[in-house]
TrEMBL record:
Source species: Chryseobacterium daecheongense
Main localization of the protein described in the UniProt heading: membrane
GO process terms (BP): dicarboxylic acid transport
Subcellular localization: Cell membrane
Protein name, as recorded: Dicarboxylate/amino acid:cation symporter
Amino acid sequence: MKGQNKLFIAIIIALLLGVGIGGFVHLQYPESAEPFSKNIKLLGTIFIRLVQMIIAPLVFTTLVVGIAKMSDIKMIGRVGTKAMLWFISASLVSLFIGLILVNWLEPGHVTKLPIQDAASAEELLKSSKGFSLEDFVKHVIPKSIFEAFATNEVLQIVVFSIMFGIALANLGEEYSQPVIKLLDIIAHGILKMVGYIMWFAPLGVLGAIAAVVATNGFEIFKVYAIYLRDFFFALGILWLVLLLVGYLILGNRLFELLRRIKEPLLIAFSTTSSEAVFPKLVEELERFGCNNRVVSFILPLGYSFNLDGSMMYMTFASIFIAQIYGVEMTVGQQITMLLVLMLTSKGIAGVPRASLVIIVATCSMFGIPPEGIALILPIDHFCDMGRSMTNVLGNALATSAVSKWEGQLEDHGGKM
């Protein structure tokens, strides 16, 4: 526990140092801000790449072992059904909160943002043009598991792992046990690596924050203050709803869970990557008392289907762009947009800046100028901090809730 607190303090210090160093460079050496930002960002890149290095093997081994150890196909179906019911309910609630609050707060009506050149959004506009049912299927079903591993396509790895795990569960212990034991050892070996990699987190946080502040300065906070204020207020409401549901299910143990996941939450907030904390989250949820089979099964699924922060952001940002351009949308159109986002968002898990790609595609579909994405690109980093942190909370609650429903949540905390 002392080591955990040391890491938490180191991350907080790195966060403050990053803001301070970035601000100093921006104010004192503005001409050097761009090269400085490019170089110091490498610290964040090193940390993210170290984590990405172990994502694919960890998802594969933990998910296969989690399913194969269940051995009972009925249990796999039962746990999977409970998880998907949670994911779908949480996604709908997140989308509705975003929709209701953006209509109530109307950040697009009260802010007068400069209409920016759409060139900054050009890459996103290109990547969204090909979005179709065919692309969705291709993104979900792996053509080659080795390609999925090489490109860290989490959703494709999840699909293969579920099928392989079910096959092992039906193979009989004589054949399956050696394979399960090997994969279990590999999974715990990778989890051991997590402890080493997490000590790079403070450097990653410092690099990521310093780069953004050095380039944009503190002005970026002022220019988009209303948008950020309204978005984080909406996130706060979503957190209250999630924590209330969590308390109804977990009781006072919810506070213990929050203590356990404080580091993953902070790292996700600082690095804007919920993926970066996946290994640490597996470790902390098992220590919290969640059954390792349930964690191994639910968490990888959650990273593909349960992105609460991203879901809320999609409705919030899409309607915000409509407000900026004065595009009036009926209640029926907004509900349709919500359902479209509900479906399309499930097919792009693991895609870089996935939320923005989906927003562009959705805007095009509903007659909202997709170039409007350029308006929110400069502050997307700060919004991403909040939504990444929320994604982590949502997945931790989902895993703990399903463990509780299955009677697989230990009161004294699990052991690694």
